[in-house]
Each structure stands twice: as C-alpha cells, then as structure tokens.
Design brief:
alpha+beta, disordered N terminus, 2 domains, Umud Fragment, subunit A, four-stranded antiparallel β-sheet, about 25% strand, elongated, about 230 residues, eight-stranded antiparallel β-sheet, about 30% helix
C-alpha cells in the first residue's frame, strides 16, 4: 500500500479506486513471481536432462571398455553356438591373464580384417598342434574335446604356436574357417572372451571352457534342480 500513497494520491480518491490499484499491483507481482518460479523449474529440469544424458554416455563408454555384445554369424560353432545368437564378450580377462585352451574367443581374423570371428582356443604359445583324421593332438597327446559333436574329416601336419600366437578352431570342424586354413592367430587380434549367452532366452547361460554350452544354460541347470 505504501507504493500507492507514494504516487501523491488525493485524499478525495474513492476507496474502490484504491482497492483496484492495489489488486492490479498485487496481480502483477504474483505474475512475476510465478514466472520466476516456472523458469527456475524449467532450468532445473533441463539441467537434470543434460546431466542424465552425460552420465549415460559416460557409463556407455565405460561399459564398452569392459564388455561388448557380439552376434554369432553362421554355423561354425554348432552345436554350442548358433547363428544369430547374442553373446557378452569379456574384454578385461586377457588384460590380466592369457587365453587358455578351451576358451571361446572373439577376434579379428588375419584373412578378413575388420570382421569379428568366434572360435575356440585349441593351442596356446609354445604348444605343438597336429590333426590326424579329425582328431586333435597337442604335444603328441590326443586332446579330449567333449564340446565337439562334428569332428573334422581332414588332417594337418604338426605346427607349433609361436610366442603370442594361438591356434583356434570352430567346433563344427568341417564348416569353419579357422587356423587349419589360415594359420596361427596373433593374440593382439583377440577382442575378448565369450563369457555369456543372453539371447535368445532358451540359450541363457555361461559359455564353459571344457563342456558343451548346452550343459551350462539356465534351462539345463533348472532341469537338474527340479525333479
């Protein structure tokens, strides 16, 4: 009200006029206050959106440095991995340790740069590998391969994996482009270890090193737990 009297309002001014002026001034103040509050809310929402997007991008790139997904193409790993099956690839394990025989790995093949293959490690650095009528021998000892259902129909003369080299084969031996075709794989071409199958749901489970993949699916484990 003090602002009204500061404007030299005549004492003859009707009370109704004074009230109308007071209401107009109050409405204008309320409008400015609401506008200020609304703008603060908008700025807060925008800030939260920007922060969420930023954190999402950071988390995405952090995850990509640890794991990545991979889609199986073809039948070279049947019956353990299937065409269009999706896997989680662990990119950290081989920074802390070396690939082991039996590991299923994703890598860039020397004959197809820019592509990714998935195969199984059969021989590690320093080991002598030979194939006789489809049977694999490591250092002249027959290799037990419980995960292979479709053995190869070929033979290969002995080859030794050099330092930093791996010998890899597909589980479906006659339908696989692998080390028996194009030679040893350099370890620096390895993307990571295939660790988990996540799609389709019927194949949910880990990917074991020394057993058929079907034996490690969630469905198989539940069948054994539930009588």
């Amino acid at each position: 009200m003090s602002s009204l009297f500061d404007k030299n309002v005549s004492t003859d001014t009707p009370v109704e006029t004074l009230l109308e002026g007071l209401e107009a001034e109050t409405t204008e103040d309320e409008f400015e206050e609401k506008a200020s509050i609304n703008w603060d809310v908008i700025k807060s929402v925008l800030r939260e959106i920007v922060e969420t997007i930023f954190l999402t991008v950071v988390i995405f790139f952090l995850i990509q440095t640890v794991v990545r997904n991979f889609r199986v193409v073809g039948t070279s790993m049947e019956p353990n991995l299937h065409d269009s099956q999706y896997l989680i690839v662990d990119k950290v394990s081989y920074r802390l340790g070396e690939p082991q025989r039996g590991d299923v790995i994703v890598f860039e093949p020397p004959n197809r740069p820019g592509e990714d293959y998935v195969k199984r490690v059969v021989a590690t650095p320093g080991e002598l590998v030979e194939i006789r009528n489809g049977q694999v021998l490591i250092n002249n000892q027959l290799l037990d391969e419980p995960y292979v259902v479709y053995p190869g129909s070929y033979s290969m003369s002995p080859r030794r994996a050099g330092p930093g080299e791996l010998f890899v084969l597909g589980d479906n031996r006659n339908s696989s482009s692998d080390s028996h075709n194009w030679g040893m794989l350099d370890e620096d071409k390895v993307v990571g270890k295939a660790w988990l199958s996540y799609w389709p749901p019927s194949h949910w489970g880990v990917i074991p090193r020394d057993a058929p993949t079907a034996s490690a699916t969630v469905g198989h484990l539940l069948e054994n737990l539930i009588p």
